[in-house]
Design brief:
Layout lengths: L9 H9 L4 E10 L6 E9 L2 E6 L14 E3 L14 E4 L10 H17 L5 E4 L4 E4 H12 L6 H4 L1 E4 L5 E4 L2 H4 L2 E4 L7 H15 L9 E4 L5 E6 L5 E6 L1
Parallel strand pairs: 4-7, 10-13
Antiparallel strand pairs: 1-2, 2-3, 3-5, 6-7, 8-9, 9-10, 11-12, 12-13
Helix pairs in contact: 2-3
């Protein structure tokens, strides 16, 4: 995400990619859009053997982000308008695996390469979690993940307090089709529920949908039960 009028054009992205040894431009083209003449440019970028499409380049129409209610270290002067963005999506051959950890990992790594070399980039939007992440926080969490650290839950997922006080994850469903739900009767401390949720997401993202009740050992050594809701859209977290 960039301030209005600060999005890069094809030439700027080319320069950025030339400075990133692990990224190459594998294709460039045009798509119906808002640029002068009715065409907006896009680029296909290759990283780690996977291709991703980058669209929204200037002077065409940029990506307009909306409803990004979960914010992490976003510059305070960025404001509510959110500016304009580029859109980075898995290529067509990855469409079936877009929610798998290897594809998201490569996508996040490519995003980091671009953010690092485009100083006008102020934040990264991850729409499955309705999250907007400031550039420095994004780079630190992705770099840590690529170096062998935990899944970057805050940024690729989020937690929010529901009416009645329950804590619920947002964005985990992108990976496994389900969200975590912490009832406030069992988890009266929201901060403790979020801390447990962070650990659980790290374990769940690569495991797929849970259709039967399972019991796990929590980070404090206590047993935790994950019980699918009737429609299997939620995993209710219970102690013991």
């Amino acid at each position: 995400m960039f301030r209005a009028g600060a999005r890069p054009d094809v030439a700027a992205v080319r320069r950025a990619v030339e400075a990133a040894e692990r990224v190459v431009i594998s294709h460039n083209g045009e798509e119906p859009g808002g640029a002068a003449g009715g065409q907006a440019r896009w680029l296909e970028l290759l990283i780690d053997g996977m291709t991703f499409d980058l669209s929204g380049l200037a002077p065409g129409a940029g990506y307009a982000a909306t409803d990004l209610r979960n914010r992490y270290e976003v510059p305070p002067d960025f404001g509510e308008a959110l500016g304009e963005g580029l859109c980075l999506l898995p290529g067509p051959h990855l469409a079936g695996g877009r929610a798998t950890v290897p594809v998201v990992r490569a996508q996040a790594a490519l995003g980091a390469e671009l953010v690092r070399r485009l100083p006008e980039a102020l934040a990264v939007a991850w729409t499955p979690a309705r999250a907007l992440v400031g550039r420095d926080f994004y780079l630190s969490m992705v770099d840590a993940w690529l170096a062998g650290g935990p899944f970057p839950t805050l940024g690729l997922c989020a937690f929010r307090q529901m009416l009645g006080g329950a804590i619920q994850s947002e964005g985990l469903a992108f990976f496994i089709g389900q969200e975590l739900h912490f009832d406030n009767a069992q988890f009266p401390d929201p901060a403790a529920a979020v801390q447990l949720g962070l650990r659980l997401v790290n374990e769940l993202v690569s495991g797929g949908r849970i259709t039967e009740t399972v019991s796990l050992t929590g980070p404090d050594g206590a047993r935790v039960t994950l019980r699918p809701s009737g429609n299997e859209r939620f995993l209710r977290v219970e102690r013991g």
